[in-house]
Amino acid sequence: MKLRIFMMGLMAATFACTAFAQQPIVIKFSHVVATDTPKGKGAEFFKQKAEELTKGRVKIEVYPNSTLYKDKEEMEALQLGAVQMLAPSLAKFGPLGVKEFELFDLPFIFDNYQELHKVTTGPVGKSLLKKLESKGILGLAYWDNGFKVMSANKPLRMPEDFKGLKMRIQSSNVLEAQMRALGALPQKMAFSEVYQALQTGVVDGTENPPSNLYTQKMHEVQKYVTLSDHGYLGYAVIVNKKFWESLPADIRQQLETAMEQATRYANQIAKVENDQALEAVRKSGKSEIITLTPEQKKAWKKALVKVHEQMADRIGKDLIESVYKETGFDPKKL
Ligand code: LMR
Question: Using an 8 Å Cβ cutoff, are 109 and 323 in contact?
């Protein structure tokens, strides 16, 4: 009898162990944009690859559109370990205390994706990700979105047109300085609140790449969209350091491979996604799309380049200089 009980206990324990071993490791990946965007698609691609490569030992739960957390909360949740993975825009690392990331917000610092990639794939990009470690965060990759448009209910052709407009921005002091340089009143606000704020007139306008503008339907509550390409918006994919380092080595390796593939994919589709979103805004007929003349663009650059100098103390003069060197940017040539 004793032996039978012992055997049954052993069987139950073996079963429990097997069941436990089969429980997949769950990674919650929270983000604030729609699934149908460069970041949203990148996250879905990563999920698929990660689950495939780990043969189901890892389950990635993607929570898009701020369904789990808004901008500020998701950063806190990552540090507390309530979620394991995020991809906040580079403009959102200031409140975390890593304000150097705001260099990506400097107006007109990158002319195109190629220039930007020189920085993100080079020593500057790597050193910035390293700075996150003291916050309990590991930076795995940079993902592109694109170059920003400005929108409002009045045409924005010249810097003067911004005078007195309340413009929603992300939580970046560089973006704050940018809007002030244009004579606007910057309002920091979570992404999930922007549509309603525009609709109700809490703010008058905003900036974002077309993919975000279109998928949040902002163009339906903004009469004009200016193709200004005045700044870049992209992401750092980040994980909770303690969690990541506690993963079995083989799993971590497979996830890193999945991340490399997802990064290549996300960066490949970013431009096309934005071009298509802009086309969809145009087709909707809800907002008029304004293309700046070379003179108007020059006036924007002239008004905004001073932000680089204004923000040098915050970001670091040397860091800005090293980006100039990498991209060939010369503020005097604007
Ligand atoms: C915003 O808050 O405007 C965007 O950066 C959101 C995002 O993650 O693209």
Answer: yes
**Pair (119, 250) in one structural domain:** yes
252-280 tens-digit pLDDT: 999 999 999 999 999 999 999 999 999 99
Residue nearest atom 5 in ligand 1 by C-alpha distance: 89
Domain of 140, in residue numbers? 2-99+107-144+234-275
pLDDT of residue 16: 44
Distance CA(155)–CA(79), nearest Å, equals 42
Rounded distance from Cα 27 to ligand 1 centre (Å): 22
- CA 287 to CA 79: how far, in whole Å? 40
Tokens matching residue 22: 């089969």
pLDDT at position 5 over 60: no
- Whole-number Å distance between alpha carbons of 249 and 220: 48
| Residue 172 and residue 210 in one domain | yes
| 325 CA to centre of ligand 1 in angstroms | 28
- Ligand 1 pocket mutation, candidates 179, 206, 212, criterion most atoms within 8 A of CB: 212
